[in-house]
Amino acid sequence: MPYQALDILAVNGDAEVETSIREAMQGDHSWSLTAASVAGNRELLARLRDQRPNLLLLDTRDGRVDPDALAAELEATIPPFPIVVIHDRAAVTTREPARAPYDLIAAADLQPRLLRHVFYNALERAQLRRELQATEERWRVTADASPVLIWETDAAGQLSFVNVAWLAFTGRSLDEALEAGRAEGIYPADQRRALQQLESAFAARRPFKIEYRMRFRDGSYRWLLDQGQPRYDPAGLFLGYSGSCTDIDEHVRLQEALLASETEAHRHLAHLQAVYATAPVGLAFTDLDHRYTSVNERLAAFSGFTVEEMLGRRVAELMPGPIGERAMACRQAVIATGEPVISTELQAASPANPSEARSWLGRYFPVFDGDGQIMGVNVVVMEITEQKRLEENLEAQVRARTAQARKLATDLTLAEQRERRRIARVLHDDIQQKLYALQVHVHILGQSSALRELPETSMRTELIGRLIDELIEDNSRLSVELSPPTISHEGLVDALGWLRQYISQEHGLNIHLQATGDLTIHDPDLREVIFQMVRELLLNVARHAGVSEASLTLRREQDNLVIHVADEGAGFDPELVLASTDEETTFGIRTLRERVDIFGGSLDVDSSPGAGTRITLVMPVAITM
């Protein structure tokens, strides 16, 4: 036992409890037992203030004393000492044993050996609590003696402690400081950044280190280095943060002054002279502030200024607009990476000749001082206007040839559609009619009484009739597939409605069709081209997706028709499919994309195995060449 003489006070216990205590303490000569009965918490508190036992055994089975309220009152008024509570097992509620201010033992467990173990445990816990309180008190005394601003927060992030140095810095009382919290006093321009970093660290339970300005007691603002660490109890429960703020204001001011001095020194050292006057290209040097410190006549002529007008002025000031932004971006990249930027093309009207666009090729090189630090950027500029004109002429010729090739491909595609319609008309208007006539004659022949007397001839006549029926059906299907009758004299949406029914009948695929906006395609050839493209996409779904439903949506976007075909079927890997040289393996998509490109449209495929397919087809509503 941690006591030389153990004084036990047993409250509201019966004779059985006293007997258990005596048996538990048998063999220990340095202990005493006092039994008492109290009516409630108030009477027991008064007795404890007078007697101050080493250990309190409290029987709560009769409900006269509330152990939780008692422990809270003792915590606030009397240094901690061990409490053991006897309870009915059925009356125990959920609690945190590791943090409870007393130990529990069930009335049914009052065996001497177990009770002795509980006494020892309670005494050791009380001793640990007293040592913890002493440690905390020493820490607070040390914190108050420190010149650094020390603080603590609770688990919710609210300030729970600040030391004397914090109060002296802010000029507040302890209650004012705790009520004000962390945000109060931070310099407005620093507040959002600092609080965001604090909240981010708090949410992640990670250490942090932040610099910001905080209001001093005289109203000025001083730079602080705020550092914090998350705090946990032995069980790993997060308790809050502990940290300190160091006044670094003089250090920051000294750094700023030193930086300004170094910048000025670099400006003076950056005057590297070269043979600029005779160079056939523009040459210049800009410092880290992007000011010209050296410029040759050639570059000045490009810019439309004299050398004297450019020296000391910023790039953005002399070169406004996109060309200046591009030049600035190149310089900043060189300064940031220490690597040159080669062959950057600049194009704009120069101040020297505002009415004519000129082209230059710029090269940017870092310049280092003796310590390996970047001093600025050397710039070499070569005018390439004439070269660009030659390139543009060549590109124009290529574009013209490309346009001619596209027009030829378009004409061939449209001619193909017209030929499909012609063949469809021949099949429907000529061959189909002749087949119908042949069907009638064969039928009349089959009804002849003379023919019936010749069984073999009659059977062959019936066979010819069936073959004619199949030819009529095949001819009709081929005519429809080549050019549906609705596409010639009705709109695209009506033709797609017919296609929806046709595919449903032939392939069992239910297509949900949705069309919005003005979808009129005046050119019949283009209308049929788009129809055939959609037909191929829907037939791909019917043949390969392995689903019974698909969606088809159409909408107008300015001068384009946007068509979306989607299914939730087998899907595929677009890269593998389009890389294949086998047209059957590509599902015709590669050929379809080439046809779409001819008309200046686009075909986007979004698919993956097992995740369905979504294809977006964009086509112009009119042919332009």
What would you say this structure looks like, in words?
- There is one protein chain.
- The chain has 625 residues and is of the alpha+beta class.
- It has 20 helices and 20 strands.
- The protein has helices spanning 15-24, 41-51, 67-77, 112-145, 164-170, 174-180, 188-204, 249-269, 297-303, 307-310, 315-318, 322-337, 385-446, 449-452, 455-482, 485-489, 492-507, 524-545, 574-579, 589-598; strands at residues 6-11, 31-36, 55-59, 83-87, 103-106, 149-153, 159-162, 208-215, 221-232, 238-247, 282-287, 292-295, 341-349, 357-368, 374-383, 510-516, 549-557, 560-567, 602-607, 613-620.
- It has a five-stranded parallel beta sheet. A five-stranded antiparallel beta sheet has the order 7-6-10-9-8, sandwiched between helices. The protein has a five-stranded antiparallel beta sheet with strand order 12-11-15-14-13, sandwiched between helices.
- A hairpin with a 5-residue loop joins strand 19 (602-607) and strand 20.
- The longest helix has 62 residues, at 385-446.
- It is flat, with a radius of gyration of 47 Å.
- 23% of the residues are buried.
- The model is unreliable at 90-99 (pLDDT under 50).
Features:
five-stranded parallel beta sheet; five-stranded antiparallel beta sheet; single chain; alpha+beta; 625 residues
* Strands in their spatial order, largest beta sheet: 2-1-3-4-5
Mean pLDDT reading: 80
DSSP helix fraction: 40-55%
Q: What is the makeup of the main sheet?
A: 5 strands, parallel
Derived structural class: alpha+beta
Rg from Cα? 47 Å
Backbone shape: flat
How many angstroms separate the termini?
Answer: 103 Å
Which spans have pLDDT < 50 for at least 5 consecutive residues? 90-99
